[in-house]
Specification:
Distance between the termini of chain B: 40 Å
Helix content of chain B: over 70%
Number of strands of chain B: 2
Structural class of chain A: mainly alpha
Oligomer: heterodimer
Strand content of chain B: under 5%
Order of helices and strands of chain A: HHHHHHHHHHH
Structural class of chain B: mainly alpha
Order of helices and strands of chain B: HHHEEHH
Largest sheet of chain A: none
Chain lengths: 209, 102
């Protein structure tokens, strides 16, 4: 548990900012909390909220969020062998796999520790859902969020999440291509489409794969 | 059901399924290496598109406005290795500050 404790306030604080940001997409407090409890993945949730708030349709919002969560298929497969028990148990425990719990439990190595993953995942989940509830309720008290610069907050948050991803040249190339695709499409395509279309940028990795 | 609720439930169900692929559906196999390395690039590509859209997108136009100062504040926070919630706060403050003085 010692490894998980410092993550609790961080998850709660970020959950609270998601709860506030969710209001810009007209998600009420209950919807924001349900989303945090079920999706439990910050970047995907903020992406869905930002596409909806920007006037994109439900399909574009869902596609953008699920593309961001597509990484959980290979991540889950990489640790599949350490899961034991019946179908329902494995399904439930699989939901606690998030980037941080996977990494802290030694994901990607042969020493993956499922118990550490479950402890960190559960700690993060409680902080994330509780923080979302607090942020969403605070947002409802404060009222219309458009005056607080929350649109700029979205951009800053995505920038921070992006920088953490830029660990090698291929990833930087994919980011630049994704940025270019979306910038070119914004003037001509409906809201949300430029974000989903940016997934084509993964093809920069084709030759190097 | 409102569009927001449809999105909440669809993203939740889709994420359940994506996370379950490995622990429930696969035992001891891996994705083809090539597919795995392309999937890894989805996050930087989509996050970069989200940065562009949230910073410059204004309906079907690109615009330079208060959000740019928010992003600049956010970038400073990122460079200073601030936690994510502080980056969010810096972005909101920068954007609000620009609107206040302009």
């Amino acid at each position: 548990m010692r490894v998980a404790a410092p993550l609790f306030p961080a998850a709660a604080a970020l959950g609270a900012s998601f709860g506030v940001l969710a209001r810009t997409a007209h998600l009420d407090a209950v919807a924001a909390v349900v989303m945090s409890a079920t999706t439990f993945a910050g970047s995907a949730q903020v992406a869905a909220v930002s596409v909806l708030g920007g006037g994109g349709g439900v399909a574009a919002a869902v596609a953008a969020a699920l593309l961001l969560n597509a990484r959980y298929a290979p991540i889950g497969i990489s640790v599949a062998q350490s899961f034991r028990g019946g179908l329902v148990k494995r399904f439930a425990q699989a939901q606690l796999v998030v980037d941080e719990s996977w990494a802290l439990a030694g994901g990607g190595s042969s020493r993956f520790d499922r118990r550490t993953m479950l402890g960190v995942g559960a700690t993060l989940w409680v902080g994330w859902v509780g923080g979302t509830a607090a942020g969403a309720l605070a947002g409802e008290v404060v009222g219309d969020p458009s005056g607080f610069g929350l649109d700029g907050a979205f951009a800053a948050l995505f920038l921070a999440l992006l920088v953490a991803q830029l660990t090698d040249r291929t990833r930087i190339a994919a980011a630049l291509a994704g940025a270019a695709i979306s910038a070119l499409l914004i003037p001509v395509a409906p809201a949300g489409v430029p974000i989903v279309a940016a997934s084509v940028a993964v093809l920069v990795g084709w030759r190097r794969a | 059901m409102s569009p927001a609720w449809v999105a909440v439930l669809a993203v939740g169900a889709g994420t359940f399924a994506l996370k379950a692929v490995g622990p429930v559906g696969v035992s001891g196999r891996r994705l083809p290496e090539r597919l795995e390395s392309l999937l890894e690039l989805l996050a930087p590509a989509i996050l970069a598109a989200l940065v562009v859209t949230e910073t410059f997108g204004d309906g079907r136009a690109l615009s330079l406005d208060a959000r740019l100062l928010g992003v600049a504040f956010g970038l400073v926070a990122v460079v200073l290795r601030a936690p994510l919630w502080a980056v969010v706060l810096a972005g909101a403050c920068g954007t609000a500050l620009f609107r206040l003085v302009s």
